[in-house]
Each structure stands twice: as structure tokens, then as C-alpha cells.
């Protein structure tokens, strides 16, 4: 049922998410311009209507009951290159945009190839993979400030970027991303220095080396596809929200206690993955924790299971409900906590439900 050219009532939301889960929205508005997006947000704010923003839908877990409010689908478009400066509309497909920068011979985001979702979502999560993250090249975010009721431009330094975090994620009710701007690099058709050991190893080069841009992108796409992290409608391993849990970052005492639990459980010589995370903190691997706690690839017997390709992805095998996915997520989270004393935190945003 249509109530205007760009709005529908009782609208299914599951098809707008990569998990293909969740009930309908009371109202769904599709915004194809920045002005239309701001109007839709202002209308919801003025009427006190709950608001849900959806773009690529790759980071959303929506309740089976749906959303009792207005969902706004961000379908804005715009890709502009000025030398090495890139501006993207929030609704631009991120993976397509990365491919275009590689084709243009510009380095800086090539290892973020294949990540599903929209450009506007990248600063919210400070999206990162294979040694690159958005914070390293992002210069500005143009956003609608719901508190000030004005469009603002935030410099990268004002975005509060941290591992899979930003001020947009910390205060999700305030800003609506409209545009993102990046400073890329012309390295003569070569990539930025490779920072991820797995990528460098696969290419037979040292960490820190540069390779042809298409080579870097294609290698990342191959790695992602092997883990079920490139969208494929025929492959249920890709019916996911990508990595469901973030890698834990532990203070010194927390990591020492965790390492002791690892030795107790796995043997005196066992040692967990450990990566410096600044200020006496250490990052470890969520995938390692999940696997060592007994939740291996393909785990589960119901309609929601761990991916057969990657333990970090929780997948819809085609007939799952959100309740099934959350039950699996809780089982994994609680099992890891019981085994190692570390509580995993979900990366996707939950709507109308909670872990």
C-alpha cells in the first residue's frame, strides 16, 4: 500500500538486510536525495515517531516483530573524484566505490574491497579489514545533526574513531551521515603498504610492500570469498551480518587472567593470539575464542548456524527467524565466557531485540 511516491506501509524489512531477517516496518520511506533524507528524519523527529535508518542492511539484526515506526531507506547516490579527493553519498554501494577508486589508480581503501553495505555506514563502525580502516583516509563526514537541526561537517579528528567505533556509534540518535570524504593516494598504480600478514603471505611479499592495486583488491576479494564474506544470493554462508562479534580488547590484568584460563583449558604451552592495542591493552581474536570454545565452522543443527567457512559469521540457512539467530549468538557468547572468562560483544546493531 502506497501513501506517496516514496513510502509504503507495513513494509517488509528482511529483504533490505543481508541476514534476510526481521519483521515489517509500520512505514518505510525511500530517500534518494540528501534533502529527502533530511526531510524524512525531521518529520519523524517532529512527530515523535521512532526512526530506523537502513542503507546496505549489512549490519542490522531486526526483531521478528518488526519496527513500530518509520524506517528510512537511504538510497542516495553520488561518486565524485577530484584528483585524489573522493566524496561519496551515504547511499553509495561501498564495494562498488572501492572498485572505482582502484580502477582510477588510487590507493588507500583497496583492502576494504568486498565489504557489503553503504558508504554512509563506514564511518559509524570505522569499518576495517585486511590492514586498512576507514579512519586512516577519511577526512570529513557531512551529517544532519538531529540535536541542532542543522547539516554539519565533521573533520576526521572530530569523529572519535577507535576500533570498530566512532562518535556516531556512541551517540546513534544524533547524526545522520549524508556524505563521506576521503583523501586517497596516487602511488603510481600501486597499493598502500600491505599491513595484513595473511594478504602479504598470499602474495609472496613482505609486510609493508606495495603491489599493483588490482592485485591487492583481487587478493582481498579471494580471501573474503573463502570466508563467505562476499555476498552471494546462492550461498547461505553469506546470509550473515559479516563478523558477528568484535575482537576483544583487554586490559593488562584481564589479558593475564585470560591467558591463564587458556593454559588451564588447552595446556601449559597454549597461548592465545595477542596484538598490541595501545595503552597497555591487548587485542585477541574472537574467531579463535569461538573455535577453541567448541563452536567450529558449521556449528548448529537449526535454521541459524555458524558459517561453514568462518566461525565469526552467524548465518541464516534460509528459513531462520531472528529469534533463532539470537539464540545461537547467546549460546556462542555464553560458551566463550564460560570457557575463557571473556564476554564477546556483538558488532551488528540490534533493532527491537537484544543479545
TrEMBL record:
Keywords per UniProt: Cell cycle, Cell division, Cell shape, Cell wall biogenesis/degradation, Cytoplasm, FAD, Flavoprotein, NADP, Oxidoreductase, Peptidoglycan synthesis
Cofactor(s), by name: FAD
Methyltransferase among keywords: no
Entry's localization field: Cytoplasm
Chemical reaction(s) catalysed: UDP-N-acetyl-alpha-D-muramate + NADP(+) = UDP-N-acetyl-3-O-(1-carboxyvinyl)-alpha-D-glucosamine + NADPH + H(+)
Active-site residues, Swiss-Prot/TrEMBL: 164, 243 (proton donor), 347
PROSITE patterns: FAD_PCMH (PS51387)
Known role: Cell wall formation.
Name the record gives this protein: UDP-N-acetylenolpyruvoylglucosamine reductase
Species of provenance: Streptomyces boncukensis
Amino acid at each position: 500500500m502506497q501513501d506517496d511516491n516514496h513510502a509504503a506501509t507495513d513494509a517488509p524489512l528482511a529483504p533490505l538486510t543481508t541476514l534476510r531477517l526481521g519483521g515489517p516496518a509500520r512505514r518505510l520511506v525511500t530517500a534518494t536525495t540528501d534533502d529527502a533524507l533530511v526531510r524524512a528524519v525531521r518529520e519523524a523527529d517532529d512527530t515523535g515517531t521512532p526512526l530506523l535508518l537502513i542503507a546496505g542492511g549489512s549490519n542490522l539484526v531486526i526483531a521478528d516483530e518488526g519496527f513500530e515506526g518509520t524506517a528510512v531507506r537511504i538510497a542516495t547516490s553520488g561518486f565524485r573524484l577530484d584528483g585524489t579527493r573522493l566524496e561519496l553519498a551515504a547511499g553509495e554501494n561501498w564495494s562498488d566505490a572501492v572498485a572505482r577508486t582502484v580502477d582510477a589508480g588510487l590507493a588507500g581503501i583497496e583492502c576494504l574491497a568486498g565489504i557489503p553495505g553503504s558508504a554512509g555506514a563506514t564511518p559509524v563502525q570505522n569499518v576495517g579489514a585486511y590492514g586498512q580502516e576507514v579512519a586512516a583516509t577519511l577526512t570529513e563526514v557531512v551529517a544532519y545533526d538531529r540535536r541542532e537541526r542543522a547539516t554539519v561537517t565533521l573533520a576526521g579528528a572530530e569523529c572519535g574513531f577507535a576500533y570498530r567505533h566512532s562518535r556516531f556509534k556512541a551517540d546513534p540518535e544524533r547524526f545522520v551521515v549524508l556524505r563521506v570524504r576521503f583523501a586517497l593516494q596516487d602511488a603510481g598504480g600501486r597499493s598502500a603498504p600491505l599491513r595484513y600478514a595473511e594478504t602479504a603471505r598470499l602474495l609472496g611479499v613482505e609486510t609493508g610492500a606495495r603491489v599493483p592495486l588490482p592485485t591487492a583488491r583481487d587478493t582481498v576479494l579471494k580471501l573474503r570469498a573463502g570466508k563467505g564474506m562476499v555476498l552471494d544470493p546462492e550461498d547461505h554462508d553469506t546470509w550473515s551480518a559479516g563478523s558477528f562479534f568484535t575482537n576483544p580488547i583487554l586490559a593488562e590484568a584481564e589479558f593475564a587472567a585470560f591467558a591463564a584460563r587458556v593454559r588451564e583449558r588447552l595446556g601449559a604451552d597454549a597461548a592465545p593470539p595477542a596484538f598490541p592495542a595501545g595503552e597497555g591493552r591487548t587485542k585477541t581474536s574472537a574467531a579463535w575464542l569461538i573455535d577453541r570454545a567448541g563452536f567450529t565452522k558449521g556449528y548448529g543443527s537449526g535454521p541459524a548456524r555458524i558459517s561453514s567457512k568462518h566461525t565469526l559469521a552467524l548465518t541464516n540457512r534460509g528459513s531462520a527467524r531472528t529469534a533463532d539467530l539470537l539464540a545461537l549468538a547467546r549460546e556462542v557468547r555464553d560458551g566463550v565466557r564460560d570457557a575463557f572468562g571473556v564476554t564477546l560483544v556483538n558488532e551488528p546493531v540490534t533493532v527491537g531485540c537484544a543479545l
